[in-house]
Input
Amino acid sequence: MESNIIEITDFTMPELDLFARLSEPQLLHYDEPGPGIFLAETITVIERALDAGHEPICFLMDNKLVEGQAKELLDRCPNVPVYTAKLEDIVKLLGYALPRGILCAMRRKKPATPEEILSGARRIVILEKVTNPTNVGAIFRSAAALGMDAILLSEDCTDPLYRRAVRVGVGTVFQIPWLQVRHGRRSGEDWRHAPKNAQALIERVKEAGFYTVAMALREDSLSVNDPVLLAKEKLAVVLGSEGYGLLQETIDLCDSTVMIPMSHGVDSLNVAAASAVAFWEFGKGIDSN
Output
């Protein structure tokens, strides 16, 4: 057995704390003022994280994968510790199902600045108070697939690098630029004046020349396929929380409100479903401009 392949004989060993005994918020702040740590699940997600430049710290995996499905992945990380055990024992350790049998603890990259995120972008997304990791992951997947250039999240959204969000998004969080500023600092830099709430994000993108549209149920809303919107050179679509939508002050700050036409008495869509419809329509404007 290679020296970096470690069969687990003691499930209380501190090396497993990253996987089993630290919460995701604790991992986020693990090495402050550094950018923190996250857990990547499934081979596809881990490979996309590696391709994006994230540094692997250690693996936890079903021992059957070492010489099987994970072999090529491990060949990319020859000196990274790999802790192995039977899958049923790993599940007991974690306290949740691990269908693909693999986790990787990884270091977060230094985040991009707002200027870097907006440079060259024409279609961006702003999320306010979207707290369900499944919805955040699905929104990232739709944004990456349907032509959005970047995503900005208010600080009270779920962290896009939480394990469930990354898994649901199939690693697309590593394929589309995004920014979420929390607690005013990252990587030792001064982020005190960076935009954190949705209103500050909207003001920042307006300064960069974006026309802002709020997805909201209002009678004076434009239709999501309105040609006026598709003709905008720079467009930012703002989406709100799963239960309550956008705050009124956020809606008031946007240039227009937009809604998706409904039928059969349905009043609204889940935020992830609504995002896919909006991204599909607004992405058409990129080709026509």
